[in-house]
Amino acid sequence: MSAPKRTNPRTESLKRLVSCLLASLVVALMWGPQEGSFGNFWFGITQSIFKPRVLVFLALGVVLFLVISFWPKVVPYLTRPGVGPLVSGGVTVLAAQTLMHWGDGIGDSKFGTVATAVSNTPGIAPLTKAFFGWLCWVMLAVIFVLAALAIVRGIKVLAWVAAGLSLVAAVIAYVAHHSVVTYAHLLDHSLGVYVEIIGYLVIITAAVVTALSSAEMAEGRVAVNRVLGWRPGLPLVVLGLVVGLLAFASATWFSPQNFNATMSDTHERFRGTGLAPLAVQYLIWLGWTLFAVTTLVGAAAAYLRNRVLGWVAAAGGAISVVLTLITIYDFSKLAGQLHVDSATGPWQNLGAGGWMACGAFFLIGAGGFIAATAHGSVREALARAADSDVVASGRAASTQFLSAPGAMRSGIMLAIAVALFYPPTATGFWQSVLVSEIGIYVLLAIGLNVVVGWAGLLDLGFIAFYAIGSYTTAYLVGSLPIKPPSWLHMSPLLAIPFAVAICLLAGLALGAPTLRLRGDYLAIVTLGFGEIIRIVAVNADGVTNGSRGPDTQVPHPVIHLGPIHITWGLNQLQYWYLLLVFVVIVLLAFRRLENSRIGRAWAAIREDEVAAQATGINTFQIKLLAFAIGASTSGLAGVFFASQVGFFNPDNFVLNNSILVVAYVVFGGMGSLPGAMAGAALLTWLPEFLKDQVPAADRQMWIGAVVLAMMIFRPGGLLPARRRAIELRGFDGAGSQPRAVPASEGM
Amino acid sequence: MTVLLSVEDIEVRYGAIKALKGVSFEVNEGEVVALLGANGAGKTTTQKTVSGMMRPSLGQIVYDGYRIDGIPPHELITLGICHVPEGRRVFPRMTVNENLEMGAFRFKRPDAAVFEHVLELFPRLRERIKQPAGTLSGGEQQMLAIGRALMGKPRLLLLDEPSMGLAPLIVKQIFDIVRGINSEGVTVLLVEQNASQALALADRGYVLETGEIVLTGTGAELLADDRVRAAYLGEEIAS
């Protein structure tokens, strides 16, 4: 071992301190006014430096210095059980208390604004005043320090104390927020308090994990998995319990103008108006009873690992969801007939409460379902765990995120619950973002994941197929200058098979000559193809109507099938559910594909093309197939897009969008379906979210920062595929050290 | 003895460069035939041409009575020509089990008996069945590469430098296994630089030099030949 040149540690740290302080001065300058005045070129510097504010920046420099200096001492603690949840919970609470809204109608409704308003209000409850004044910060600091101490020192009592305090903090936050809302009679839809509660729940998880962890669970992920997998289904039931309590006790069920009615208020509101008896009973007692019974049964099923109870809870949850939907349909329809707040039909003026109740019942039922079906898999998982002692590499699986029995399926169920019952409670703005940004790009990312993630082909012209799908739809519905023959004229949903087929053919046509190219060359050719399609769309005036896009509106989808008549209009929610159906169909098909012969062939080609050839894979054909399948998914998205927006133009299909879709797939985790979806959802959501939070000019910077942080801390993407995770962590990182081999065998 | 594979005067080019300038040889059913030669002699090119990864510009290859030059590898494999490419080339992120399954890709599902047989031939693979192939040592990866080719039920097994970068003891083990595979009736075309081991195993051998066959004979004859000893075994020949 050759030691590097030794330097005096004291001069080293002195240098480091000086550079940290200098850096903090630079940041102070950047923060201040950037220009001098004509008379005084020192203006900017005097404004920035010679002010007490500079002390804050210098202090930050010292903190940075301390962090850098003591980082090697901190690192060993980072894999301890509970560190991940603690940090993410702390960050969540902090974000809730800085970025989120806490009371719609008070200024910009951010935490700081609400806090100022509360401190200027004399009559408000002292607890509320304390919370918004200092208590929220002190609680967070105390809990964080306690939990951190518990983790570092391994003191279990302290962990339990931290968990208890977190619970108290969550309750206090809720009470304080509630008192502000009731005091000021706000029409409040802010989410800050809920995010804060979630943050504290995550901290509680951290503390519980710490308290329950033992020596054998030295690694954080293992311990978290153990806790989550203790009783499969139980986490979902508990979550359902929390959501349900909020829904039934405090959430708004009916919200015409200037009126927020909880469930009992809603009953009062409709007393004597001839509301259907089922809805009346539901609002009085049935809802609560169903909630109590399903929760009890679900919890019992999970705790006792009882199959029968699990199925009962699942069925109860399903029935309760239906009953809840019927109830809110009934009273909103009645409100429509009575023209409450100019309502014209059902499903109007609903608050979040009914949907939250649906979500709660869904979660409880899903918990029961997992408890009912996870029985066998628990044993399998235990067998696998035993196996992993024999085969060292098996550990890679058991330390993976969400590898606990039922945890992955719980995650999926949670995602379904959110996808089904969150959108109706969102504002119109968010509904349109959900449909025209998040939903469509999720579909596109799923399609591109086949090409980039599974077959390993970099396609930078993916959006061209989306354009082809959109224009095919526009042609078939007769919105382009050239009209289809009358027998081919059809409604948008019927255009799906045609658009998909044409995109498939386009994929084959592009793939056949270009797939002999590799890597960078393929990327360049596809990039060119994408631009060609767009430029043709701009210039082929007689066919595509040029840069103006289709001349008459592409009609909205309709379904007339026997007794079923559904007409899509301007309501974004309808499109959301249509999109959900598309995504689910595509997902189911692709999941099968991933585990099929073709999926394995893709994996082989990605790993080693020569070897794949040697094992008898027709590499060209299989790659072409990936291209065509990706293209046809994109075509499906195109049909949806065209009929949803009605009018579009070639600017919707610029190169930038192709690159963004690639970025979503990479960000989410190449080759992983949940990853691609999560990546697309997060990166399309983020810019819209930042609209309210940061100055417009800074938005791209923040997105860039998020992507950068991701690439540093999770280079495999948000939810990496199993194989890719191995690839990026290296084989040793997976904990799969090959066992020692006797020297005489020398292998 | 019937001729299984006959290569007739093939010429292969990489652009303007002629890698093979008219190579002819034969492999009989049930034989082990070794192709020897220094780096750049054209051994691997010859084998890649036989396995269909390259296309000869002149000449023809006849296998089992059919002309096969120009047929792509995924079709040749259905005729029973399985190729263990140079440098092992296992799928590093797939487990040993998955690698073996990939070897049987031409079938709807892997033959359980063959699978079992491969694991008997290579007990080390059974121990590491769930491990990613990239974590295996060089010798184990070579075993896996051979095992993967065997999963395709070869009639003619093309082995490209199985001894590359392996310790002498392991090389001996691998060659023993190849002998065993051959004794079960699989014809083997072996490309090697390790002449002594290869010729000890081979029934016949051909020596390639800059794209041409310069010497041929049975394994024992070649092993005794002064030129071979001088060139490939590094022995000083007093002359």
Question: Quick summary of this structure?
Answer:
The complex is a heterodimer of chains A (747) and B (239). In chain A, 69% of the residues lie in helices and 1% in strands. Chain A is mainly α and 747 residues long.
Q: Which structural class do the helices and strands of chain A define?
A: mainly alpha
Number of separate helices of chain B: 10
Largest sheet of chain B: 6 strands, mixed
> Percent of residues of chain A in helical segments?
55-70%
Helix proportion range of chain B: 25-40%
H/E element string of chain B?
EEEHEEHEHHHHEHEHEEHH
Please give the order of strands in the largest beta sheet of chain B.
6-7-8-3-9-10
How much is the radius of gyration of chain A in Å? 29 Å
Radius of gyration of chain B: 17 Å
Q: Bin the strand percentage of chain A.
A: under 5%
DSSP helix count of chain A? 29
Query: What is the name of the CATH architecture of the domain at 1-71 and 186-239 in chain B?
Result: 3-Layer(aba) Sandwich
User: What's the story with the biggest beta sheet of chain A?
Assistant: 2 strands, antiparallel
Q: Would you tell me the structural class of the helices and strands of chain B?
A: alpha/beta
The CATH homologous superfamily name of the domain at 1-71 and 186-239 in chain B equals P-loop containing nucleotide triphosphate hydrolases
* Count of individual domains of chain A: 4
CATH topology heading of the domain at 1-71 and 186-239 in chain B: Rossmann fold
Number of beta strands of chain B: 10
Question: Which ranges of chain B are low-confidence, i.e. pLDDT below 50, for 5 or more consecutive residues?
Answer: none
Question: Can you describe this structure?
Answer:
The complex is a heterodimer of chains A (747) and B (239). With 747 residues, chain A is an all-alpha fold. Chain A folds into four domains: 15-27 and 48-79; 81-217, no CATH class; 229-425, no CATH class; 429-653, no CATH class. Helices cover 69% and strands 1% of the residues of chain A. Chain A has a two-stranded antiparallel sheet. In chain A, a hairpin with a 2-residue loop joins strand 1 and strand 2 (564-567). The two termini of chain A are 26 Å apart. In chain A, 44% of the residues are buried. Mean pLDDT of chain A is 83; it is low at 386-399 and 732-747. In chain B, helix 3 (96-103) packs parallel to helix 6 (138-150). Chain B contains ten helices and ten strands. Chain B has 239 residues and is α/β, with parallel strands linked by helices. The radius of gyration of chain B is 17 Å and the shape is globular. Chain B has a domain at 1-71 and 186-239: P-loop containing nucleotide triphosphate hydrolases (Rossmann fold, 3-Layer(aba) Sandwich), CATH 3.40.50. Chain B starts with a strand and ends in a 7-residue tail after the last helix. The mean pLDDT of chain B is 89. In chain B, strand 9 (204-209) and strand 10 (212-218) form a beta hairpin. The A-B interface holds A 387, 391-394, 597, 600-601, 603-604, 607-608, 610-619, 723-724, 726-727, 731, 734, 736, 738, 741, 745-747 and B 51, 53, 72-74, 77-78, 82-85, 89-95, 98, 101-103, 105-106, 124, 128-132, 134-140, 148-149, 152, 167, 169-170.
